[in-house]
Automatic annotation (TrEMBL):
PANTHER family: HISTIDINOL-PHOSPHATE AMINOTRANSFERASE-RELATED (PTHR42885), THREONINE-PHOSPHATE DECARBOXYLASE (PTHR42885:SF1)
Protein name, UniProt field: threonine-phosphate decarboxylase
Cofactor entry: pyridoxal 5'-phosphate
Species: Vreelandella piezotolerans
Pfam families: Aminotran_1_2
EC number, as in UniProt: 4.1.1.81
Gene3D superfamilies per the UniProt record, alphabetical: Aspartate Aminotransferase, domain 1, Type I PLP-dependent aspartate aminotransferase-like (Major domain)
Reactions accelerated catalytically: O-phospho-L-threonine + H(+) = (R)-1-aminopropan-2-yl phosphate + CO2
Organism taxonomic ancestry: Bacteria, Pseudomonadati, Pseudomonadota, Gammaproteobacteria, Oceanospirillales
Length: 363
């Protein structure tokens, strides 16, 4: 058994290969990254080449055209949109707005809320959701929300895939002081089947800000692109914390054509409607505990029968990697402590390969 530390980032394949004493050139498929397997849309590469000449100029500083395209797509006013350098930038801006104040993070969740709060010296309280279903009982938050200046909630949540419905969100908002912020990170909302939109709540609750990413749905994490939807006042306050020209020319120019590609969006929804439930059922059938997910990934762990035969999540991760599948460990998620693994939903044949390997690993 090796004592090398678990890498902080779950997708750090080199560190995991080293930990399990596998050669650096060991071949594997990545089932840890929760990105749309259909993207990026095929026209994007040529389109970027065509736009390259624009790199010799500064981008238009308020990103008017991109914000207008997002506003039309979301049914809000352009003043309610802030373009950001990925969803991660939006998270750090929300924390900056409440620097030195009190933060509340609903865990287990994406680690960047804690990092953003630490960077801006917030005093953080965590509200831990209970395994194995990780559902949020908002009544349990009635008291904590009155004592926080900013609350980070992920919808659907990474890594559990669970989704808080609009009624529950409204319930939280109605308990919050008007000076506080509810930052709902919806990086995966386009990859959530049947999610009710929260945008209609923006008009009634100035506390609400929605953090969005365009890197998951369009499979462009290297490009960096996201946005915030909020009241015009909130957007103006967040913009004060953003360095000028935060979003590069190529990313900003790509916003309108990406949103206009309805055929890609439809293909994605069809894939998700087919593969997401199919994979979930097959994982359960293989003997895993599977958290009911509403997005393109599943949080799983060996179920009771497999545990009895000595199979832990760490051992399953190791076996999967030996068999050429890199799953996401959960040592870096507060409150999970490695007890679970996250698996991405991929295209049909890739999911079949995972299921075949999984059967060999749990035998
Ligand atoms: C929940 C969540 N929010 C935000 C992000 C950041 O996404 P982006 O690539 O847009 O910065 C991630 C990335 O993994 C994420 O999981």
């Amino acid at each position: 058994m090796t004592t090398a530390p678990w890498p902080d980032h779950g997708g750090d394949a080199a560190a995991l290969l080293k930990r399990f004493r596998l050669p650096a050139d060991h071949s594997f498929e990545d089932v840890s990254a929760n990105l749309n397997p259909l993207g990026p849309p095929p026209w994007v590469a040529d389109w970027l080449v065509e736009c390259i000449s624009g790199l010799s100029r500064y981008p238009e500083p308020s990103y008017r055209a991109a914000r207008r395209a997002i506003a039309e797509h979301e049914g809000v006013a352009p003043e309610q949109v802030l373009l950001t350098n990925g969803g991660a930038d939006a998270i750090f801006l929300a924390a900056a707005l409440h620097a030195g104040q009190r933060g509340l993070i609903v865990t287990p969740t994406f680690g960047e809320y804690a990092r953003a709060c630490a960077a801006h010296r917030l005093v953080v309280t965590e509200h831990a959701l209970e395994a194995p279903r990780f559902g949020l009982q908002t009544a349990a938050l009635d008291e904590p929300v009155t004592q926080a200046d900013v609350i980070f909630l992920c919808r659907p949540n990474n890594p559990t895939g669970t989704l808080v419905n609009a009624v529950e969100i409204e319930r939280l908002l109605s308990c919050m002081p008007t000076t506080a912020t509810l930052a709902v990170d919806e990086a995966f909302i386009d990859l959530a089947l049947d999610a009710e939109p929260l945008t209609p709540l923006l008009a009634r609750y100035p506390q609400l800000i929605l953090l969005r990413s365009m890197t998951k749905f369009y499979t462009l994490p290297g490009l960096r692109l996201g946005y915030v939807l909020a009241s015009a006042e909130h957007v103006a306050a967040l913009a004060c914390h953003q360095p000028p020209w935060s979003v590069n020319h190529l990313a900003a120019e790509l916003v309108a054509p990406l949103l206009a590609d309805t055929a890609f969006a439809q293909r994605t929804r069809q894939w998700l409607a087919r593969e997401q439930p199919r994979l979930g059922q097959a994982l359960t059938h293989a003997g895993l505990d599977v958290v009911p997910s509403q997005s393109c990934f599943y949080l799983v762990r060996p179920g009771p029968a497999l545990c009895q035969r000595g199979l832990s999540s760490a051992l399953l991760l190791e076996r999967l990697l030996h068999h050429g599948m890199l799953a996401r460990h959960t040592y870096s998620f507060a409150a999970l402590d490695g007890d679970w693994l996250r698996l991405a939903v991929r295209d049909g044949s890739a999911n079949d390969r995972l299921l075949k390997v999984l059967h060999d690993c749990v035998r």
